[in-house]
Amino acid sequence: MAYKASADDALRVALTGLDEPAYQRQPRTSVSLVVPAFNEHKYIGNLLRSARNQTETFAEVIVADCSDLGEGTEQIAHEWGAHVVHVPQGNIAGSRNTGARSASGNVLVFADADMLLGQQFLEKTLDVLESGKVLAHPYMTLYDSSGWRIVMHLPQMLRWDDGPTGCIAIRADDFWGIGGYNEMCNPMLANSPCHDDIDLGRRVLE
């Protein structure tokens, strides 16, 4: 367990995703970005903008949307060229799995709708997976909503081996090989026996 970046470093790197990159390289493999969303019209546009501004590009973006009717998230997602799948409210693990089932990429990246991705997020993430790692949980991200940025700064900067938070990358075969996210681990329920992100990381290590 070690600090990967300071708060200032994280902010600086993540905000690069809002600008066009100086270069874009050919993708070395197909990567799908899967985004669960619930009433995220204030934030999802910046996430999708940062996804487009990568130095190595995503093949597709899947938004698993359970927003209230007419709230605006779906329209914004379509404006940025994302594919939207509708999911029931109340289970983020289920939303992530449904989005992943609609994805065609060899690599799956899961990110929360209120995140920003630094310009080299995907390029560096694929470097990690190519080095032999099964799961990458990068630090080149930041929550766009200030409240979550404060709450999640420490777990985002401190990376336990079995404790990915919010944003991960994994090969599709490995993801489905462990059964995807455990939908019994629902952080929206007070009596949930586990947290879906942490549970996934621990099963990867088994």
Key attributes of the depicted protein:
single chain; 206 residues; alpha/beta; 6-stranded mixed beta sheet; two-stranded antiparallel sheet; 8 helices; 8 strands; 35% helix; 16% strand; globular
Describe it for me?
This protein has about 210 residues and is an alpha/beta fold. The chain has helices spanning about 5-15, 45-50, 75-80, 90-100, 120-130, 145-155, 170-175, 195-205, and strands spanning about 30-35, 60-65, 85, 105-110, 115, 135, 140-145, 170. The chain contains eight helices and eight strands, in the order H-E-H-E-H-E-H-E-E-H-E-E-H-E-H-H. A six-stranded mixed sheet has the order 3-2-1-4-8-6. The chain has a two-stranded antiparallel ribbon with strand order 5-7. Strand 2 (about 60-65), helix 3 and strand 3 form a beta-alpha-beta unit.
Task: Break the fold down into its secondary structure elements and pairings.
Blueprint: H1 7-15, E1 31-37, H2 44-52, E2 60-65, H3 73-79, E3 83-86, H4 92-101, E4 107-110, E5 115-117, H5 121-130, E6 135-136, E7 141-143, H6 146-157, E8 168-171, H7 172-177, H8 196-205
